[in-house]
Every structure is written in structure tokens, then in C-alpha cells.
């Protein structure tokens, strides 16, 4: 039963919940980034390059071997089972990765900045002495105020 209890402690600590939230948000963010790349960034790049749609760029390996196989699109080549290198999709995925990496960098940079700010505020705050030290200090001050002589040490 030891491993079950360990798993319960692990799951209850919040690590699993944090991981699940991260995965869900990451999936949603991935969808947004994919749309940004495919629907916003790549069309102007395609327009600038003369109407090239990067997602449809590919190399048909059958053409290299001299076989008679010309396909109208990447999808048609894949449906026919032709071996292809879809380098246009690879370019889109590289752009998506760079966008995600940049967003994560900004997120981590912001979190580090907030953490540093909190640490600086904590360091700048005066440190309160423990309660027993405060109590002893008050007792000492009261004794001084009453003019009591120090207790002689036994000789």
C-alpha cells in the first residue's frame, strides 16, 4: 500500500493539477499559434514570394527516380502513396516553433521579473526579531528604567 499512498500524496500536492492545466493551455495555445502561422503570417509571405503556399511545397521522390508520377498537390501525392518530402509543412512548423519559443521566453522572463521583484521587496522589508528576543529586550529595558542593580555573581 506504500506506493498507492505515495501516488495520492503526489496527486494531491498540486503537481498533477498544474501539469494538467499546463497541457490544456498548451494545446489551446498551439491551436492559436497554428492559426497565426497558417492564416496570418504565411499568406503575406506567400504573396511576397509570388503566391507560393508553403504548406503545399514538397519534393516527390518518385520524380527523382525517374518514375512517371506527377501530382497536382501534396494531398494527391500522399493519397497515391507516393514518397514525398513535405518541406513546406516543415517551414510552417519551424515558424510555429519560433513563435511558441518566443512566447514561452516572454512568459518566463515576466515570471522571473515578478519573482525578483518579490525577493527584492522581501529583502528590503525590516526583519523582525523573534518574540523571545523582543520579550527579553523589554525586560532588560524595564530593569534599567527601575534602576535595579545587577545581580551579583556568586564568588
From TrEMBL:
Cellular compartments annotated: Cell inner membrane; Cell membrane
Predominant cellular place of this UniProt entry's protein: membrane
Keywords noted in UniProt: Cell inner membrane, Cell membrane, Ion channel, Ion transport, Membrane, Transmembrane, Transmembrane helix, Transport
Topology within the bilayer: Multi-pass membrane protein
Domain of life: Bacteria
GO (cellular component) term, any one: plasma membrane
Pfam families named among the record's database cross-references: MscL
Membrane-spanning intervals of the chain: 12-33, 84-108
PANTHER family, alphabetized: LARGE-CONDUCTANCE MECHANOSENSITIVE CHANNEL, MECHANOSENSITIVE CHANNEL MSCL
HAMAP family per the UniProt record, alphabetical: MscL
Summary of subunit composition and partner proteins: Homopentamer.
Function according to Swiss-Prot or TrEMBL: Channel that opens in response to stretch forces in the membrane lipid bilayer. May participate in the regulation of osmotic pressure changes within the cell.
Family: Belongs to the MscL family.
Protein name: Large-conductance mechanosensitive channel
Lineage, broadest ranks: Bacteria, Pseudomonadati, Pseudomonadota, Alphaproteobacteria, Parvularculales
